[in-house]
Amino acid sequence: MTARDWFDRAQKEGFAIGAFNVDNMDIFKAVCLAGKNKKSSVMLEFSQGEVSYFGLKNIVDLTVNARQEYGIPILLNLDHAKSAEDCIAAVEQAGFDDVHFDGSDLPFEKNVEETKKVVENAHKKGLLVEGEIDKISTLSEVHNEEIDLELLKKSYTDPTKAAKFVKETGVDILAAVFGNVHGIFPVQPDLDIDLLSKIREAVPSCFLSLHGSSGIPADQVKTAINVGKIVKVNLNTELRVAYREAIGEELSENPEEYASYKLASDVILAVAAVVENKIDVFGSAGKI
Ligand code: G3H
Ligand code: ZN
């Protein structure tokens, strides 16, 4: 099954596939293990920083091996690439299923132009393209500051603009913004489900993704999947937090241990537990 087949199925059956950011090898293994335990497809995704840590070719080779080793469908996504060239490099590398061109820093017309370039290249090779017009605020980390909700609302997706963007670029997936932010905040903004349903109506033939799912209560994520027919939910910060907590514990419990791989198994289990819980929330368990 291709990524398109998976998203079609997810939309029809009312679940979403988790797109989990991979910061390091332990998180890579944790996501694959959780998918296997839950009999779920998973999407591995790599942001610019994560790509420069692993290297593009290693990412593909590791994923190809993991598909065999874990025996589950593993989709591969380039996450928030800021240049069309980086997306095209991933397309050329072969092995990716989806590239996310994040042109949200560009003026609308330039974003359309660059996104179209990516779409042309990706579609020739059968890859899906995710596009973004409204900047998803902040970084995937734990924030201490409060969110300025009025300011945030200014960045929410305008359904009319979204329809124009999808029509002009031919993107397959739109990263919609309706209260979702990157990272965890002391008070997480609520998702604007009414706006989501308007976005859904405005782009009926385009898949929708939910970025910044860390910190959003499970019931809101489920409602978004249900109302918005969201098929891809991105998660990063909660994995980073679980990893940091687990590795911190391991180091303090084993002060004499210098072989770091010996500390890894419990860390992997701790991160996998978070992923398994998310797979339940997204409804993809048992769907392979
Ligand atoms: O693209 C990645 C995500 O949108 C992750 O967001 O760190 O809030 O989970 P998050
Ligand atoms: Zn994101």
Tags for this entry?
288 residues, alpha/beta, TIM Barrel, 8-stranded parallel barrel, 12 helices, globular, binds glyceraldehyde-3-phosphate, binds zinc ion
Description:
With 288 residues, the protein is of the alpha/beta class. It is built from 12 helices and 8 strands. Strand 3, helix 5 and strand 4 (98-102) form a beta-alpha-beta unit. Helix 2 packs across helix 12 (260-282), helix 8 (159-169) packs parallel to helix 9 and helix 11 (237-253) packs antiparallel against helix 12 (260-282). The protein starts with a helix and ends in a 6-residue tail after the last helix. 47% of the residues are buried. The mean pLDDT is 97. Bound molecules: glyceraldehyde-3-phosphate and zinc ion.
CATH superfamily (homologous) name: Aldolase class I
Within the CATH hierarchy, at the fold level, what is the topology?
Answer: TIM Barrel
Portion of residues within helices: 40-55%
**How many beta strands in the DSSP annotation?**
8
> What is the number of independent domains?
1
Bound molecules: glyceraldehyde-3-phosphate, zinc ion
Strand order of the largest sheet: 1-2-3-4-5-6-7-8
Number of helices: 12
- The geometry reads as globular
Using only CA atoms, what is the Rg? 18 Å
Termini separation: 10 Å
Under CATH at level 1, the class stands as Alpha Beta
* SSE-based structural type: alpha/beta
The H/E string reads HEHEHHEHEHEHHEHEHEHH
Main sheet specs: 8 strands, parallel, barrel
Q: Unreliable segments (pLDDT under 50, ≥5 consecutive)? A: none
Overall pLDDT level? 97
Strand content: 5-15%
